[in-house]
Amino acid sequence: MRQKFRLPTLIGFVLTSLLLSILPSQGAIWAPNITPPGQNIVGVNIVDSFFNSGENVSILTAQGVPRFNPDGTPNARLCKAIGVDPCNKSDQTYVANLLLPVCKSAAEQWCIESVSIRKIDEPATKSVKFIRQVDSALVENAPGDGLPGGSSISLWQAEGMQNSGGVDTYAVYVVLKATKLPGRGPTFDQFTAMVLPYSETRGFKYERPFSEEMVLPNGSIRIGTRGSAGECAWTETGLCGLMEDFPNGVRASLTLRVSNLLTGWLMGRMADPLINVEPFDAEQNKISIDAEPVKVPKFYAVTDRSKASAAILESLPRNSDFSGVTNNLANESGAFRTIENWKDVAKDTAAGLVSTWSATTIRSGFGSQCLADTTKLLGVVTTNAMVYEGTAPRFERETLNYQVGGMHFNPDGSVFEGTYDLVMRKGTAQCLYGFNDAPITATVTVVEAGKEQRIETSSLQELGSGTEKWLKLSARGFTFSSPTLKIKLNQDKPTTAAPTAPNNSSATAAGSGNPAPAVKAPAKRLSITCVKGKVTRKISGVAPKCPAGFKKK
Question: What is the pLDDT of residue 547?
Fold first, then answer.
């Protein structure tokens, strides 16, 4: 998905308020210093989401038939509620981008039940204090249409957990994306949850978020949003929640009440995730996500159009005279090609590092029906890579494969090291490999440019009990550019016929019960020091080798 200083067609329309975020960043953490580019300047900015450039407000829209007008503008209208003019036509498809509120009662659905931000050694039951919901436009909750209402970003105080701004305030953003086709009930496509440290700052440029219909000179209607700023976790009139970094050594947790149809997989920007899913009522599950934030390298680069490579020029929007910065999502399929095209411009170096905590549902699985089961939560895959696959791992030739990518160096010149966590139902592993219930071990290799290197796993654990057993695997210390992580699960004992994972609406992942010890003691590790010019890197492993271009010291 691509953004040319405008929102993507995430909900089927072109939104036009991005000029609000074409301002020098004043953020307390790294943010792209996006200034109005010159006539011949082109660039690319890779982002995890568009939450602070348009998706920060609840929106309900109706798409007509055809989806686009003859002039190319989306054939869409902004809705107060389904069934209320102009959103009352029989052929309209409704698309919703709805922010979840904080739960107000024990029986309320579609809401944030609790938040925890604490030191790593403190229990997840340590809750934080709810401050308020951000003042922004809302979507009416109209009973009978099957969709919840849309609220705003919620603000919280975590006593003693001072972020990089020296304050203990955090914003929680949980957005639900849903579609309702003509004559059918809604389909809940995805939810995304983010925890965002912030400090408050004031400025005339900040606006209350809202959406609007704008009539073009030819009479066509374009839907846009106002009230976004790239450096802010949230905005109100004259006020900005300036994004900050998490303090070191903390974990964050969210407990959400969402549809039990939101199943499959979770992907995220976090480390050491613990997930718990249990029924809330006949329609909803209660999902708890607990993890450490991770430092994610950010990509931003600009160049004069006359100096751009053929690959860069070919990737630009089709306008022959386009100048500006294009925003791409980190988990879209073209992200790997983007960083490869721009690597030389960026000098193979990340523009910044930002601590991040986020989780998003994904439903697809490739290579096996065992990974595509939609009856339950199957697993969680998380990484701190600059770009990554926005799907569940692929099962190919007996290995679970997952591609990540990024620049080789941090902004300070040190070599960036990647993290990868996979939490998967043991029943799913048994389905893939035909395993029985005997203990499972794992090997992890990194494959890049045809070269394969085995890396050490920090742990492989079997968690839970009975039919609710989970495998939790962590890999650390791999480097970029665009390696594929290959995980091979092994079982020493002969296997029986392949069982299938039980269909049970209650699931507990990596956190219920006491963890079993690692099933295989790691081999003895050795450490060597490798140098390349002024860069020094310590390599650890069973048989450590210096990366290409480095020499053993």
Answer: 66
Q: Using alpha carbons only, give the angle 208, 214, 219 rounded to the nearest 5 degrees.
A: 175
pLDDT at 317 over 90: no
Residue with tokens 């100048």: 323
The rounded distance, in Å, linking the Cα atoms of 124 and 119 is 9
pLDDT tens-place string over residues 513-552: 333 333 333 344 466 777 666 556 656 555 666 766 667 7
β pairing state of 441-448 and 551-552 = unpaired
| Of the candidates 194, 153, 125, 474, the residue with the CA atom closest to the CA atom of residue 357 | 194
Query: How many Cβ atoms from other residues are within 10 Å of residue 177's Cβ?
Result: 19
Token pair, residue 35, equals 């200034």
C-alpha neighbours within 13 Å on the C-beta side of residue 95: 17
Structure tokens at 430: 């048994």
Reading the block at residue 501, the tokens are: 């994972």
Alpha carbons 526 and 531: distance in angstroms, whole number:
17
The pLDDT, as a whole number, for residue 533 is: 66
pLDDT above 50 for 309: yes
Q: Where are the domains of the chain?
A: 2-35+47-250, 296-522, 523-553
> What's the rounded Cα separation, in Å, for the pair 120 and 225?
38
pLDDT in tens, 31-42: 777 655 567 888
| Cα dihedral 305, 311, 317, 320 sign | positive
Q: Are 140 and 224 in contact, with CB atoms under 8 Å apart? A: no
- Name the residue among 175, 146, 181, 487 with its Cα closest to residue 361: 175
Chain centroid to CA 246: 17
| Residue 512: predicted pLDDT | 39
The token duo for 331 is 């988990």
Tell me: the pLDDT tens digits for 65-94? Answer: 888 888 777 889 999 888 899 999 999 999
Q: Does the structure show a pLDDT above 80 at 458?
A: no
Tokens representing residue 309 in the block: 């490579």
Q: List 221's β-bridge partners, or say none.
A: 215
User: If you write DSSP's letter for every residue of 349-406 in order, what string do you get?
Assistant: B-SEEEEE-EEEEE---BS-GGGT--SSEEEEEEE--SEE-SSPPEEETTEEEEEEE-
